[in-house]
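Example (one chain per record):
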Amino acid sequence: PQIDIGVDAYLPDIFINVPSVKVELYKRLVSATNLDEIEGLAEEIEDRFGPLPIPVMRLLQLSRVRVMAKELKIVQLSHKTDRIVLTALATTPMGPEVVRSLATRYPGRLVPSPAKAPELSIKLPLRHTVEQALDVSEDVLLTMKGALAGAKQESG
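Predicted structure:
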């Protein structure tokens, strides 16, 4: 999926100063396919290099967002001026339970789209940072995953 949130997310030279190690860690983050892998990598980075600086925490957060977006068949997640926009495949499981959960979690901030592709927006507070947009994005995806897990348990 394409994630368009302009947050500072990287491995700083002052934190990891060996280029080959940085490249290896970036590759592992990009190839991670589930949240457990990312969590394991976060623990490994902290064990090897010490407390995580904010850009590294944001890099890990972006990786979690990417993995969850892929699981949920979201093809694009964008930070627009005043909202987060999720664009999904037609096969994305955005049924009523997901919409209900998001509407409950974000009262008055959920904006369905009239576009042909399934699209959903969450309005952000008037004065927000890109970091807050990333935080909301992660929370939206976690809420969607939770709603789907709950729906599966009820039907299964």
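Caption: Residues 64 and 117 are 24 Å apart (CA to CA).
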